[in-house]
Design brief:
The structure is a single chain. The chain is an alpha/beta fold. It has two domains: about 1-70, no CATH class; about 110-235, Zincin-like. It has helices at about 45-50, 55-70, 115-140, 175-190, 195-205, 210-225, 230-235, and strands at about 1-5, 10-20, 25, 35-40, 80, 85-90, 95-100, 100-105, 145-150, 155-160, 165-170. It has a four-stranded mixed beta sheet, with helices on one face. A hairpin with a 2-residue loop joins strand 1 and strand 2 (about 10-20). Helix 3 packs across helix 4 (about 175-190) and helix 3 packs across helix 7 (about 230-235). The N and C termini lie far apart (about 50 Å). The model has no long low-confidence stretch (mean pLDDT about 90). The protein binds zinc ion.
C-alpha cells in the first residue's frame, strides 16, 4: 500500500498493471484506492490519480461517512451537521454548549431537555437555511415568499404554490452539502413543479451529482429514523 496526500487527506492506494485498454480507478469499501493501469501504460499512476482528485476526495469522504454512520453506539449519539456528538444532559439554567465531539444541554428540573435541544437546533438550522437560501436564490435567480421549519414525517422539504418553502428540522442532521442540495431542489420547484426532465436538468446546473445526493439522503433518512436522540426530540 502506498499513500498520497490530496489536499490534506491521506489516500491509500494500490497500483495494479493488467491486460486492460484503459486506466481506471476504484475506491474499495475499506477506503483504499485501486488504480488499474494497462501493462504498457507510460502514464504515471500518480498523475492519473491527481487528474481525478475531485472525484476521489468526494468518494473518499462519502465512504468514510457511511462507515462512521453504521458503527455501533452511534444510535445513542446526536447526529448534527453530519457528525455524531455525545449528549450530556444537566440540570440548571437553560443552555446548550457544543464542543468538539460532545453537546451539553442543561434544562431546569421538571423541564424536558430534549424539547429545549430541539428548539435550539431549529433556531440554528433557521440561520443556516437563511444563509443558503439567500445565496442560492440569487444565484439561481428565483424568488420565494418565506420559509418554515417543520417536523415533516416524510419529506426533507416542500414548496407551495404560493412560493412558500417548508423544510424538515431533520435537515440539521445532514452534512452541509446535502442541506445545500435540498435547498437547490426546493428552489428549483419554484420554476418547475414536477420532477420532470426540465427539473433535473435545472438541478444539475447547480448540483451535477444530484443522484449521488439523493442516495445519501435516503441513507441519512434511515439513520435519523433509527437514532434514539432524534426520536426523543421529535416525540410528541
Ligand atoms: Zn421535489
Amino acid at each position: 500500500m502506498e499513500y498520497l496526500d490530496i489536499e490534506g487527506t491521506r489516500i491509500p492506494y494500490v497500483v495494479d498493471y493488467r491486460n486492460v485498454k484503459y486506466m481506471r480507478l476504484e475506491l474499495k469499501p475499506d477506503g483504499h484506492l485501486l488504480v488499474v493501469m494497462p501493462k504498457k501504460s507510460t502514464v504515471k499512476p500518480v498523475d492519473f490519480i491527481m487528474d481525478k482528485k475531485d472525484w476521489i476526495l468526494r468518494k473518499f469522504r462519502e465512504i468514510n461517512s457511511y462507515r462512521e454512520l453504521s458503527s455501533n453506539g452511534n444510535e445513542n449519539k446526536l447526529l448534527l451537521y453530519g457528525r455524531f456528538y455525545d449528549l450530556e444532559i444537566k440540570r440548571g439554567k437553560y443552555s446548550v454548549a457544543l464542543f468538539e465531539d460532545k453537546i451539553v444541554v442543561s434544562a431546569p428540573d421538571g423541564r424536558n431537555p430534549y424539547v429545549y435541544l430541539k428548539n435550539w437546533i431549529k433556531k440554528e438550522l433557521g440561520n443556516e437555511l437563511e444563509r443558503y437560501l439567500s445565496q442560492y436564490s440569487s444565484l439561481m435567480n428565483v424568488r420565494f415568499n418565506r420559509f418554515l421549519i417543520k417536523a415533516h414525517r416524510s419529506k426533507w422539504g416542500s414548496c407551495s404554490a404560493k412560493k412558500n418553502l417548508n423544510f424538515n428540522i431533520k435537515l440539521a442532521a445532514l452534512p452541509e452539502e446535502l442541506v445545500e442540495y435540498v435547498i437547490i431542489h426546493e428552489l428549483t420547484h419554484l420554476v418547475e413543479r414536477k420532477h420532470n426532465r426540465h427539473f433535473w436538468l435545472r438541478v444539475s446546473k447547480y448540483c451535477p451529482d444530484y443522484r449521488e445526493k439523493e442516495k445519501m439522503l435516503a441513507k441519512y433518512w434511515y439513520i435519523i429514523h433509527n437514532n434514539r436522540i432524534w426520536n426523543k426530540m421529535l416525540e410528541k
